[in-house]
Design brief:
mainly alpha, 0% strand
Length: 163
């Protein structure tokens, strides 16, 4: 071995020993109840309400894919929120992804069965798919929940005039 190789071996041994000493002084992390655990909120600085507002702005701007991504994040932060599920369904409907939209409307109704707008939007999707009986059922339910829905009344009158 050359003198240089011996010096390098000594330096490597020295630094290896120092790393070993450092590792020996490390302590296991303690369970600290005052220290918050990581939750879904720790992934983003926004809460679900501000995410919903941001997604609403994206829908208005026409960025539907981006809006869906933001609504999805809001849904992760606050699962089973009827408003979030409704807005995801509505956005999917705007993209003409009707089957997915109907699934989200059903999820929204399972959380908030008193939302007439979910029924109303489902009725529009069923009308577009020429499923008149389902559309009529949801229009009637929307009117039952909110008798002041003029759009639902007009659509129901159109349906009844067809029969």
């Amino acid at each position: 071995m050359t003198l240089f190789q011996i010096l390098m071996l000594g330096a490597s041994a020295y630094f290896g020993y120092k790393i070993y000493e450092h590792i020996q002084t490390l302590k296991e992390p303690e369970d600290n109840p005052s220290k918050p655990t990581r939750t879904a909120d720790s992934f983003s600085t926004f809460d679900s309400t501000s995410l919903m507002e941001k997604a609403d702005d994206e829908v208005i701007a026409g960025n539907l894919d981006k809006a869906l991504a933001i609504y999805s994040e809001a849904n992760i932060k606050e699962p089973n929120n009827g408003e979030t599920l409704f807005k995801m369904a509505y956005t999917l409907g705007l993209q003409e992804r009707y089957e997915e939209a109907l699934e989200y409307y059903n999820d929204a109704l399972s959380v908030d069965p008193e939302n007439p707008f979910s029924h109303l939007e489902m009725a529009y999707i069923y009308l577009k798919n020429d499923e008149i009986a389902s559309a009529r059922t949801h229009l009637n339910k929307a009117l039952e929940l909110d008798p002041d829905l003029e759009k639902a009344k007009k659509e129901l009158e159109k349906l009844n005039s067809k029969v």
